[in-house]
Design a protein that fits this description.
Blueprint: E1 2-5, E2 8-11, E3 17-20, E4 23-26, E5 31-35, E6 41-45, H1 47-65, E7 71-75, E8 97-98, E9 101-105, H2 109-114
Antiparallel strand pairs: 1-2, 3-4, 5-6, 5-8, 7-9
Length: about 120
């Protein structure tokens, strides 16, 4: 398994902690995103998964406070990442598609206006 650290790829051993630009996370967390066929998205997270997502959002927030347009990527292991886990509720038939890449954009006022967002 490889982890993206400061936009570089570093090999990881099974059970290793992942130390990156925004802190340390265990690969034992839950942060799974699934969609249906009607435009709904379902997020399954445990405490560590919520913390990971909050750290990424805090990174976006800090960039916006500095009038930047930051973004971040979260990938599943199938897409050479570690941030997103791959699981869904078997009892929920509407959870169809596992999300393997989540890109979060932060737009400052200038670029939000330029893009008509």
């Amino acid at each position: 398994m490889f982890a993206r650290l400061r936009h570089a790829w570093t090999p990881l051993e099974s059970g290793a902690n992942i130390e990156g630009v925004r802190g340390t996370m265990s690969k034992e967390h839950l942060l799974s995103i699934v969609s249906d066929n009607e435009g709904q998205v379902f997020v399954h997270a445990d405490l560590e998964g919520v913390r990971l997502l909050m750290k990424e959002l805090k990174h976006i927030e800090k960039g916006l406070e500095e009038n930047e347009c930051p973004h971040t990527h979260l990938y599943s292991e199938s897409w050479a990442g570690w941030e997103l886990t791959e699981s869904k509720l078997e009892s929920q038939e509407n959870e169809k598609e596992q999300i393997h890449h989540l890109k979060i954009y932060g737009w400052n006022q200038e670029w939000k206006t330029k893009h008509g967002l």
